[in-house]
Write a structure and sequence with these properties.
OB fold (Dihydrolipoamide Acetyltransferase, E2P), binds adenosine-5'-diphosphate, alpha+beta, eleven-stranded antiparallel β-sheet, 9 helices, 2 domains
C-alpha cells in the first residue's frame, strides 16, 4: 500500500470489481482516498458503481484486484466483522418483532454470547491482536443502548416496536444500531431514500449533526445530487464505474472537471453548448472568441493550448443576467458583446415557477442554435412564451471544456482562491471532527 494509507481514512488502490456477463467492470478505481473524519458522499447515476464501492469497503464483496486500507491497515482480506465499521442499509433492515432497544442492542448481545461461549481473552481486530474485554454484561449493554438511543434522540421510545415509529424514527433506530459499537467507519447506503421529501430534508440535517457529534469517517452513497451537495464535506462523483471527480462540494460544483460532472451536479443543470473558437485579431482584444448560432463569448484565452476539435462552453442558469430590453435592441448577439463574457439571445419557451423564483427555458433565435435556461426572480419580466430575452454571463462564470470533455482553465475561471479556502476549511473540519470523535465515540463505547 502507499504511504498515503498511513494517513488514515479509507484508501482504495487499483480496485477492480467485475460481475459475470458485464462488458465493463462495475468499478475500476486506480486510487481514491476518503479523508479521515470526513462525511464523504459518493454520488452518480444509477448503475455507476456506488453500492459496489460501499460493499467492497464493508467486505460484503471481494474485489477482483486491488487493496482497501482503513486508517492505515490493509483490510482487503478481512471479513466485515473485523473491519471496525457499521453499515446502514437502504431499507433499515430492522427486526419487526423487537423493540427499539432490542434492535439497537442485538449485535452487542450476539457478540457477548459469542465471547462467553468461546471464553475469549483476545480478539483479532484489523490492527492486530487486542486484549478482549470480558464479555459485556447485560447492564453494560443496556447502558450502551441507552447512550446510542440518546445520541439519535430516541430516548423515551426504547420500548416501541418499529411499526409504532415514523419513517424518520426507524431510520434513527438503524443509525443507533450502527453507532452502538462505536465504529470508526460508518457506511450508509441510500439511507434517506425510503423517507418522504419533507422528512428527508430533516433527516439530512440530523445525519450531519450526528456525524459532527460522533466524529467517525462516514461514507454515504446516493444518486441524489442535491443530497450529495448539501451533506458532503468531501464529494466523490462516479460515472460508469470510474472516478469522475473528487473534492469539496464547493470545488466540484464551481470547477467541474468534465462535462459529465458539469451536467450532473446542479439543478437546473448547467447549460452546455458546442462552440467554435476564433482567434481574436485585434491587438486591443487579446484572447479567444467563441461563437455558436445566436451566441458570442470572449475569454482572455484558455490557460493551456486548446486541443483541436469541438469545444463546449458551460454556464449555470443562476449565473445568467437577463435583459428584457437591451440597449440598442435585439439583433445579432455578437453586437451585444463589448468585453469579456458571454451574450446570448433567446425566445422564452417554458416558464417553471419554483416558489422563490422561476426557471425560464429559452429556444435560440437562430436556426440551429441550442436552447438554454436561466433562473430569474419570481416577480418581474419573462413570464410568457414568445418574449425575447438577452442574457449576459460574466467571464469568470464561464466553463470551458475541450473536445475530450475535460475542463480547460481560462484566466478568468473562478478558482484558485476558492480552492485555497476549501483546503483550509477541510483541514480545520478534519481536526475538529477528530477531536470530537475522541469524545462521542468513547462515550457510546463506555
Ligand atoms: P449503483 O449503486 O451506482 O446503482 P451498483 O454498484 O449497484 O450501482 O452496480 C454497478 C453495476 O454492476 C451495474 O451495472 C449493476 O447492474 C451491476 N451489478 C451490481 N451488483 C451486481 C450483481 N450482484 N451481479 C451482477 N451485476 C451486478
Amino acid at each position: 500500500m502507499t504511504d498515503r494509507a498511513a494517513l488514515g481514512g479509507i484508501v482504495l488502490r487499483d480496485l477492480v470489481k467485475s460481475y459475470a456477463d458485464a462488458d465493463r467492470p462495475a468499478l475500476d478505481l486506480p486510487e481514491l482516498t476518503i479523508p479521515p473524519g470526513s462525511f464523504t458522499v459518493v454520488v452518480g447515476p444509477s448503475g455507476c458503481g456506488k453500492s459496489t464501492a460501499l460493499r467492497l469497503i464493508a467486505g460484503l464483496e471481494t474485489p477482483d484486484a486491488g487493496h482497501i486500507a482503513i486508517d492505515g491497515a490493509d483490510v482487503t482480506d478481512l471479513p466485515p466483522g473485523r473491519r471496525d465499521l457499521s453499515m446502514v442499509f437502504q431499507d433499515f433492515a430492522l427486526y419487526p418483532h423487537m423493540t427499539v432497544a432490542e434492535n439497537v442492542g442485538f449485535g452487542l448481545r450476539i457478540q457477548a454470547r459469542h465471547d462467553r461461549r468461546r471464553g475469549l481473552t483476545a480478539r483479532i481486530t484489523r490492527t492486530g491482536r487486542a486484549d478482549a474485554p470480558a464479555a459485556a454484561s447485560r447492564a453494560e449493554i443496556a447502558e450502551s443502548v441507552r447512550r446510542a438511543c440518546a445520541l439519535v434522540r430516541l430516548d423515551g421510545k426504547e420500548h416501541r416496536r418499529p411499526s409504532q415509529l415514523s419513517g424518520g424514527e426507524r431510520q434513527r433506530v438503524a443509525l443507533a444500531r450502527a453507532l452502538v459499537r462505536g465504529p470508526s467507519v460508518l457506511l450508509l447506503d441510500e439511507p434517506l431514500s425510503a423517507l418522504d421529501a419533507q422528512l428527508r430534508h430533516h433527516a439530512r440535517a440530523e445525519l450531519v449533526r450526528l456525524h459532527r457529534e460522533f466524529g467517525c469517517t462516514a461514507v454515504l452513497v446516493t444518486h441524489d445530487q442535491l443530497e450529495a451537495l448539501s451533506m458532503a464535506t468531501h464529494l466523490v462523483v462516479l460515472d460508469g464505474g470510474r472516478l469522475s471527480q473528487a473534492g469539496s462540494p464547493q470545488e466540484v460544483y464551481s470547477r467541474p472537471a468534465n462535462t459529465f460532472v458539469a451536467g450532473f451536479l446542479g439543478s437546473p443543470a448547467m447549460n452546455l453548448q458546442p462552440v467554435e473558437t476564433i482567434a481574436e485579431e485585434s491587438a486591443t482584444t487579446a484572447g479567444v472568441g467563441l461563437r455558436a448560432p445566436g451566441l458570442q463569448a470572449r475569454l482572455a484565452g484558455p490557460a493551456e493550448p486548446l486541443p483541436a476539435g469541438p469545444v463546449s462552453l458551460g454556464w449555470r442558469p443562476a449565473d445568467g443576467v437577463p435583459e428584457a430590453a437591451p440597449a440598442g435592441g435585439f439583433g445579432s448577439a455578437a453586437g451585444g458583446l463589448t468585453g469579456a463574457g458571454l451574450v446570448v439571445d433567446g425566445i422564452v419557451d417554458i416558464v417553471e415557477y419554483t416558489g422563490d423564483g422561476r426557471v425560464v427555458t429559452c429556444r435560440s433565435t437562430v436556426e440551429g442554435g441550442s436552447s438554454w435556461a436561466v433562473t430569474v426572480p419570481a416577480e418581474g419580466p419573462f413570464r410568457a412564451a414568445g418574449e425575447r430575452v438577452r442574457v449576459r454571463v460574466a467571464a469568470e462564470r464561464l466553463h470551458l471544456f475541450g473536445p475530450d470533455g475535460r475542463r480547460v482553465e481560462h484566466p478568468e475561471s473562478d478558482g484558485p482562491d476558492l480552492r485555497a479556502r476549501d483546503r483550509a476549511d477541510a483541514g480545520a473540519e478534519a481536526e475538529r471532527v477528530a477531536g470530537q470523535r475522541l469524545g462521542a465515540a468513547d462515550q457510546v463505547r463506555a
